[in-house]
Amino acid sequence: MIPIIAGCAWRRVDTVFEVDWTNTPTGAGSVTGTGTLYERLSAQSTVQTGPTTLATGGALDNSSVPPIGKNGGLIGLVIEEARTQAIQAWREMVTPNWFDAGGGSFTHDAATSPDGTTSAERSQTTSGNPGYYCAFSHSGNQTFSYWHKAGSVGATGQAVYNAGSSVFYLVFAGSEPTNWTRNSVLSPSGGSGGPLVYMTDGTSRTAIGGIGAGARDSLLDFVNFENGNFPSEAFGPGVATRAAPRWYRNVGNTCLAEDGSLRCYIECEPKGASNEYSADMTLWYIDANNNAVIDNAVQAVKITIGGTLYTTPVSMSWSREDRLRIFVSVGGGQVTSVQYAVGASSPIRISTGSPPTFGALTISGNLDFLQSNKTKVFSVRCQRIRFYKFNKKPSDF
To answer: From CA 76, how far away is CA 60, in angstroms rounded?
Structure first.
């Protein structure tokens, strides 16, 4: 365990506790603590640091180091559910995962990768041939993802997922980008004889929305095939499991307002869309009888206080990587209130009707954020978490 410092040293006069990650350096190993703890039982492996870059190795191989990432939005702490990666050769086109189906050639360490090392593989395929494919085991809903860019000026690329039984999914087709880009596709259960992915498919795939036959030339790296409905941060080598982390405050009572209410604001970028999570997503957790989660089936917020469950009548909705803001106020004799906002939109109250009133809360030990002691993980990039004083809240909520 290591303590974590808030990204900004100042504290708002209307909060009792907060952590802001938006001004911290991306990567790992650059944060120290002022009141929260972080722990994980495995290495992180990588973290995305921008739309075209990621960081690897070094401190990220230390299981106690929190990953700080960024995509197109703001910098944030990456919290992700446990995932298992099925591809052993995730960064090199070698056995036991890579084979030539005809017309393919590759060059090891041909160019600079998204992490700045000279590790990118160049895959080329002659027109009309499928070229090199990546093969792996498949069980349940899993997500295939990879980083790619043009191997030469004006090159085209095409990646096609073959689930077997003539079931195909298009991962990418068209002019290869000049900058590193990540693409992914969900592979549901079904098919036989697969799965495999033609990484630079030179055949015609217009029947599934792809492009016609032609030569392909692509740079590839960080190939992942993992359980889950959306891609997480790239990790490997497979078969490897990256454990879920725990992020919490061990003096949880200091997050309570003066009246014993818990007035929690979370700002984050979810990794998955609102309907893509396979388990409830934790907002905060004291114990099994006192917690707040998002129901993964209907996307309503479920608040349990003293064993009594309240579910909001209205659900939430968001897309992958949206800016999501949630404010939950409960306890202290106040009427329970739940609001959320997506992007620049105004907050929406989803605790409509006659929400309950709960008395003053007590927290004798830990208060977990975005996971329930490493379960029911809300996979997000978290920018800010704040706990407000009595009768205080974010200015637009």
So the answer is: 15
Phi-psi region of 224 (alpha: psi -120 to 50; beta: other; left: phi over 0): beta
pLDDT of residue 10: 44
A 10 A CB-CB count for 287 gives: 15
pLDDT tier for residue 166 given thresholds of 50, 70 and 90 = confident
Mean per-residue pLDDT, 257-283: 98
The amino acid present at 108, given as its one-letter code, is H
User: Which of 93-97, 147-151, 350-354, 392-396 is predicted with the least confidence, judged by mean pLDDT?
Assistant: 93-97
Q: All domains of the chain, ordered by start, with CATH?
A: 2-82+244-388 (2.60.120), 98-240 (2.60.120.260)
**Considering only CA atoms, which of 283, 280, 285 is closest in space to residue 298?**
280
Distance in angstroms between the alpha carbons of the first and the last residue of the chain: 34
Beta bridge partners, 150, equal 218
pLDDT at 120: 97
Q: Whole-model pTM?
A: 0.93
Strand pairing category for 120-125 and 380-388 = unpaired
The pairing of beta strand 367-369 with beta strand 67-69:
unpaired
Of the candidates 289, 281, 301, 309, the one whose C-alpha atom is nearest the C-alpha of residue 369 is: 281
* pLDDT of 100 over the 60 cut: yes
Residue 24: phi, psi to the nearest 5?
-90, 150
